[in-house]
Each structure stands twice: as structure tokens, then as C-alpha cells.
Amino acid sequence: MRRRIIGATALVATAALVAGCAGPSGSSGGEGSSGEPVELRFLLWATNPDQLALFDELGEEFVAENDDVSKVTFESVTLSDLNTLLPTWLASNSPPDASWLPVESSIEYMNADALVDLNPTLKDVEGYDYDDLADRMQEPWRDGDAQFGVPFSNGPLIMYYNKDLFDQSGLEDPSAAVEAGTWDWDLLREDLQKISADSGKTGLIFDAFEFKNWVRMLPLIRAYGGTPWDENGEECLMDSSEMEAAYSALHEMVYDEKITPRPGQQADFWGGGAATTIAYLGSNGLLADVDFEYGVVPTPAGPGGAGQHVGQSAMVAYSAGKHTDAAARLVAYLTNPESMRKLSAYYPPSRTSLLNAETMEESAPVLDAAQLEPILTAVLENGTFTPVAPNNAETTAALNAALDQFVYGEDADIPAALQQVCAAIQPTLGG
């Protein structure tokens, strides 16, 4: 991955990060200035007691194997709090030693030299098996030979469907269409129009979209070959022909075909009120309480091919931390083969040896390996990650606001509206 050039607005946001990245003099090792064992602080946004207990267990194991570390504290914060607090902590030389970090923040922190290059540590730790890390999933965190994060959670957006509604309308099961190679957006839209006409129920819900979160549209965008900006985050591509086709398809599904809720309308797939929903694999637990037969499949293909979107978070260590060497070793321990195997009970892993349907089944207990195999295949063959801009938070906010203002209305002229979107977000990009 090439390093991105940060634009003027992003430089303002990251200047504070750079100021804190050098770290206190003589504090890069494991022991404190007095030679005493140190305590490490790790931030994450987990709230599940079982998940937190597992991290505590792994932390205790790490301490037992590292004499220069006396304690590892895992602090749970919300993701929004993490995004707000980290820049302040980094600027004041008081960050956590390590944390989870979403892929959306990768470029900004890498370009600000805020993250420790983990590559030497990962390759030096005995038994780590660096080559087992799936290359495709490491790409957002690598820059040449350097590696600034190790993905531990790789959750795909998948399609859940109500088998009963497909059966009642006499339609082919989506899983059969996947197997036959005919599963695409044209077929889905045709099927959902029939289901809506027969049952009066909603066809498709983009979970957690609500015309506010553009990322939830990525399965449709990728299927049409679209991306919001170029790979360096310098040029807006929202007005490209591919994006025009994707947002025209959304507009048609909402206002012409009426198979997707309009702004302000509500429908509940899990309560039986819709035929399909696109949601993360981690939502599968909600199926335990449904009163209909269900299935899961990869999201449909389109003119741009089969683009299976994958959400991702990594473990990182901060270069402004007081104990960077110990923090890097902690990240290595938490992502070694045995630790990642344990964590795979909750988080889809990024090690080749664990990328199989049986392992995925552990983190998706409501589903079985046969249901998960096509999804895993789609992830490995066509997986794509969230496009990231150098100043991602500002760009994302500007994009969501511009889409709401210009694109989502019933009377929107999509080509002209997308040109207005580009005019709105271009100043936030790196070009």
C-alpha cells in the first residue's frame, strides 16, 4: 500500500498526532525508568463480559511470560469516545500503549507516524508464524515492509433472507442462485418486487443505513464497480458512471419499485416484516428469536462483479506510548496463532489457518458451516474493505451530509446530484 498524501484540512487534524509520536526519551522498552516491570494499558470497545474475560485471561498469560510487564489493563470505551480521545492523548504524550483501531482510521494514523511498525516484532517472536497472516486482509495496515496493525476482526456484510417469503411467492431460494452463479442485483430486485406485491412486506433493508451511513451502501456500490474516491484519497469519484449507476439503482428501489423503505419509513426484518436485509455477520445471533425459516448468502453481484464488503478492525501499538517494545509484544501475543484461535469464537480471524467455515461457525453459532462456506469463499475471492480517506472522519461527515442534501430525495437528478456531492467533499480530500 502506498502512503497517502494528506491534504491541508487533514494536516491540521493530524499535527497534534505528530507532535506526540516521538514518545518520552528512553521509554521505548518494557521496563520503566527505575528498571521495575511496567503496566500496559489497552483500549477496546468490547462490552460482552465473556469477550472481556477472554482478553483479561490473555493479558494474564502475557504477563506470566514477560518478566518486564507486571499488569495489562483492558479498558472498554465506546468507538466514538476512542475516536475523540485518542488525538488528545497522543498530542499530550499520554496515549494507551495499544488498542483496537477501525480500518477507517488506518491512513490518518499511519501518515501521522502515530503507530508502531510491528513487523520486526511479529517476525522475531518465536512461534508467531507471520506467513500465516492472510495477505489480503493485512493490506490496509501495510506500507512496504512495515506493518502498523494486525487485523483481528474481519466481519462481512452479508444478506439474510426470509425463506418463507421466497417460498410463498414460488421463487428460487437465493442459495440456489448463488450455487448456479445467477445471484445478482437484477435477480434480487425482480424477486423482491414479486414478494412485496404478494405479501405487502418490505423487500430489502440496508441495516443501520437509514439514509445516514453511506458505508452500509457498499455492497451495492461495489457490485456496480464504484468507489467514492481514488485509492490515494485525493480525487472524488462520487460522480463517476459507476457511482451514478449504483445510486440510480438505490433511487429506483426506493421510489419506483418501492422494495426498500423511504427516508423515515421503518421495517423490521428480524420481526418478519421484510424479505431480506444486509447486515454484518455479527448480527446472526438475532436469528435465534425469529419465527420464520431463514438463510444467508453473500451480497449479490452486479455489473462491476461480486464485491463482498468486509468491515475490519486491527490491534495497534502507539509510537507515543511509554513502552512501545512491550506494547508491540503484547499485540503479537494477542494475535499469535493460539490467541487468535481463541478470539475467533467472537471475531472472524485474519490467519489463513483459521479461515475456514468451521472456525467461522464458532463466531456465528446460529449458522452452520454449510451456510457459511459460500460467504467465506466470497470474502476470500472478492473481499473489499471500506475506502479510507486521509482525513476520514471529516470526509465521511461531509459525504453523509451531501448525500442527504442532494441525492436521497425523491426528485433528485442523480447525475447532477452526485456532481454536487463531489463539490462538497473534494475540499476534505488529500488532493
UniProtKB/TrEMBL annotation:
Domain of life assignment: Bacteria
Keyword tRNA processing: no
Range of residues in the leader sequence: 1-21
UniProt keywords, alphabetically: Signal, Sugar transport, Transport
Keyword Zinc recorded: no
Pfam families, alphabetized: SBP_bac_1
Entries under PANTHER family matching the protein: ARABINOSE-BINDING PROTEIN-RELATED, DIACETYLCHITOBIOSE BINDING PROTEIN DASA
Protein name from the UniProt record: Multiple sugar transport system substrate-binding protein
Lineage, broadest ranks: Bacteria, Bacillati, Actinomycetota, Actinomycetes, Micrococcales
